[in-house]
Design brief:
disordered N terminus
Length: 234
């Protein structure tokens, strides 16, 4: 008897003798013996025949992600948001899918919902700020979100947040504020090469010598460093 027939019979037995949710731990053991594509197909068939459960959709969500099936990934995210009280986490996952298959404004909407559920979910501020940063008329909103992340004393990506906010300040010709942010970004993470190139170009725009920063950027592997050095450090 083939593996597929065995698994199908197993699912039929489960549907006859126990609920899908209560028995999912047993089903998962069977799914774990398959490769991800086969497990995804079997679980999708099982859900269609036996109904949905949080555990089943969470498991299929991970399978869909592993095989890059974005349509089912989004479908499972939407189902989990509608049926799970821990919505904040799932809004956060949903943004990842939107970033891949939709547009920035859709993802911003989900991040805003994530922040509404939990105003202290600082990663959502950072990620929403990145999306705002891509939209020319949303620089003020990006700056506000980066500031929220920076002030939260979350150090994971604080150096990066300072670089982005500094670039916004530079676009707004707030050069002194931008320099403060770039200096602090380097102080927090001396390996942040984006902070060095940003500070170097800012210094040059301010009429100062930024070549040492551009040379540092080059030694750190900045692929476009030579272009800047040729243009500004003759």
């Amino acid at each position: 008897m083939s593996l597929k027939i065995n698994i199908t019979l197993f699912f039929i037995c489960i549907s006859l003798f126990g609920s899908a949710q209560n028995q999912f731990s047993d089903i998962k053991k069977a799914l774990d013996t398959m490769n991800n594509s086969v497990a995804f197909a079997e679980l999708t068939d099982y859900i269609s025949k036996n109904g949905s459960s949080i555990e089943a959709h969470e498991f299929r969500l991970n399978l869909a992600d592993s095989i890059n099936n974005k349509s089912y990934y989004l479908a499972d995210i939407n189902w989990l948001i509608a049926n799970n009280s821990s919505k904040n986490d799932f809004y956060y996952y949903k943004k990842g899918c939107f970033c891949k298959i939709s547009n920035s404004r859709d993802a911003i909407s989900d991040f805003s919902k994530s922040i509404e559920f939990n105003p202290s979910y600082w990663d959502s501020y950072f990620e929403r700020a990145l999306l705002y940063f891509r939209i020319p008329d949303k620089m003020d909103q990006a700056s506000t979100d980066f500031t929220s992340y920076i002030n939260a004393e979350v150090f994971t990506r604080k150096s990066d947040a300072l670089v982005f906010r500094g670039r916004i300040f530079q676009q707004q010709e707030k050069f002194k504020d931008a320099l403060v942010d770039f200096n602090l970004a380097i102080k927090l993470n001396y390996l942040n090469r984006e902070a060095f190139v940003a500070r170097g170009l800012l210094k040059i725009e301010m009429g100062d010598d930024g070549c040492s920063d551009l040379l540092k950027y080059q030694t750190m592997g900045g692929e476009d460093a030579q272009i800047y050095i040729t243009d500004f450090c003759k």
